[in-house]
Amino acid sequence: MTDPYAGYERLTFDRPEERILRVTFNRPERYNALDAVGHRELTYLWPKIDADPDIDCVILTGAGRAFSAGGDFDLIERNMQSFDHLVETWKEARALVYNLLDCNKPLVSAINGPAVGAGLVAGLLCDVSIAARSARITDGHTRLGVAAGDHAAIVWPLLCGMAKAKYYLLTCDVLTGAEAERIGLVSLCVDDDALQDKALEVARKLARGAPSAIRWTKHALNNWLRMAGPTFDTSLALEMMGFASPEVREGLASLREKREPDFPRGSPV
Q1: Which residue among 85, 181, 221, 254 sits deepest, i.e. has the most Cβ atoms within 10 Å of its Cβ?
Q2: Among 158, 138, 110, 119, residue whose Cα is nearest residue 39
Q3: What's residue 266's pLDDT?
Q4: What topology is assigned to 11-257 in CATH?
């Protein structure tokens, strides 16, 4: 029988136990940053999992020292230079969120090390998010010079409240796993060396539970996020608009040069 998860370039798959699929961001030399290939693979994986009768739970994690360091610089630059590529990214970013919400299987994230961008989207939209104590979580959008689009407006205020959401999304300050748990951004925080075992323990509990009851409960709860769809669509459109701004040019240059950004003043917005 053909393996439905063969042929992926940026994701690897294994089955730590029967009916549990583990998905791993696998670009450790780049801290699992997502290029165009990885972004596309991550976006369209979830309908396949949704339709897989042999899977009852999924674990999402990262290889090496990071969960995922967000979109790589080449992907960002491509969005800045090509309208067609920008539209493609917009469609994928929107589909990623809704595909995660619509996947009927329970999802568990094991967040290790840096977690930013599209990888963080998937990590926080999993049904149970477990962070290592030393995890470093940041949205990162305004540091780059674009609006916080991907997922933040749809889920951060619901998880940790508007005051905390605004603080961390506007400043891009970094949260440790322990602080993310304290404010309610993630479900659990555990010691680094216990992360994978804890994720498997939770996945095992979900995989052995009543499948329909768990999936229908997830579907109903995710309606809180679906109701925020117009807010999400607005934030994502504003993020895409930002790729035409001088702010993102300075943001990307400063990240590449590992310096503080000097964003232009006097915006007409």
Answers
A1: 181
A2: 119
A3: 81
A4: 2-enoyl-CoA Hydratase; Chain A, domain 1 (3.90.226)
